[in-house]
């Protein structure tokens, strides 16, 4: 999946992506400071925002293969169950009750199946949004800060769900997050955006540990204490 000469003007902000490639079947991290264009790029990829210029070559995917979750998910005025099966309903796919119960149970929400979805806590709403995104088996899932309000155990649960998915039936993921420890756990490739441009792409080692770009170096220096502590502990356990 390639992005070529993409431009979008939103007020004073300009998104300009000359060339960016997302490897199919990999987990990608989209990072960078606030206002760098990460969410705007995600909305263009998913098709809810039109670019002013340029194109996205989705091949071998199509727009129907893509879904996105956000930090503040939209939920229907309905039950948890009916929110969860909505992507199946609009695609005329019969729900697999055992699969639905398994997903809800895994997230500790099986007992909330019949509860009014909008009465859930913000963390529970994000959990529902995440598993709803998976329910119709898309080939690309964009996660836009969806896990930000979750407790550490819940974040680890979804990290494991993603990693297990990649072992057994890999799809493409794009995770937008400021949590670099989370990004380093799940991502194969990292893309760093600044002022609407992709200024460095590469592996975790290339971008997070040994960045070549001065802007990325400065960004990492502001977060290196917590990230390096995690990285050191990881090495010690190995």
Supply the CATH architecture.
3-Layer(aba) Sandwich
Average pLDDT level: 91
Computed Rg: 18 Å
Which percent range fits the helix content? 40-55%
The figure for the number of domains is 1
Order of helices and strands: EEEHEEHHHEHEHEEHH
Q: Runs with pLDDT <50, length 5+? A: none
Counting H and I runs of at least 4 residues, what is the number of helices? 8
First-residue to last-residue Cα separation: 34 Å
Instruction: Supply the helix-strand structural class.
Output: alpha/beta
CATH class: Alpha Beta
Shape: globular
Largest sheet: 6 strands, mixed
Q: Could you give the count of β-strands?
A: 9
**CATH homologous superfamily (4th level) name:** P-loop containing nucleotide triphosphate hydrolases
State the strand order across the main sheet.
5-6-7-3-8-9
Approximately what portion of the residues adopt beta-strand conformation? 15-25%
CATH third-level topology: Rossmann fold
Q: What report would you give on this structure?
A:
By secondary structure, the chain is an alpha/beta fold. The protein has a single domain (2-72, 140-237), classed as P-loop containing nucleotide triphosphate hydrolases (Rossmann fold). It has helices spanning 38-46, 80-90, 97-106, 122-134, 152-168, 180-186, 204-209, 214-237, and strands at residues 2-10, 13-21, 27-31, 53-57, 66-69, 140-144, 172-176, 189-194, 197-202. The chain has a six-stranded mixed beta sheet, sandwiched between helices. Strand 1 and strand 2 form a beta hairpin. Helix 2 (80-90) packs parallel to helix 4. The protein is globular.
């Amino acid at each position: 999946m390639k992005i070529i000469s993409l431009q979008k003007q939103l007020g004073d902000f300009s998104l300009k992506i000359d060339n960016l490639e997302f490897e199919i079947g990999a987990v990608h991290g989209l990072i960078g400071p606030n206002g760098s264009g990460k969410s705007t790029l995600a909305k263009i990829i998913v098709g809810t925002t039109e670019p002013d210029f340029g194109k996205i070559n989705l091949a071998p995917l199509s727009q129907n293969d893509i879904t996105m979750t956000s930090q503040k998910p939209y939920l229907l005025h309905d039950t948890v169950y009916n929110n969860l099966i909505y992507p199946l309903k609009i695609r005329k796919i019969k729900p697999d009750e055992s699969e639905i119960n398994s997903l809800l149970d895994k997230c500790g929400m099986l007992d909330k199946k019949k509860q009014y979805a909008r009465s859930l806590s913000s963390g529970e709403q994000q959990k529902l949004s995440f598993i709803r995104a998976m329910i119709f088996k898309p080939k690309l899932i964009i996660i836009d800060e969806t896990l930000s309000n979750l407790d550490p155990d819940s974040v680890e649960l979804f990290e494991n769900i993603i990693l297990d998915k990649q072992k057994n039936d890999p799809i493409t993921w794009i995770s937008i997050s400021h949590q670099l420890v989370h990004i380093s756990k799940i991502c194969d490739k990292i893309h760093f955006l600044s002022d609407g441009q992709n200024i460095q792409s590469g592996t975790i080692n290339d971008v997070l540990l040994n960045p070549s770009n001065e802007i990325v170096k400065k960004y990492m220096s502001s977060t290196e204490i917590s990230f390096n502590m995690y990285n050191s502990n990881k090495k010690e356990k190995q």
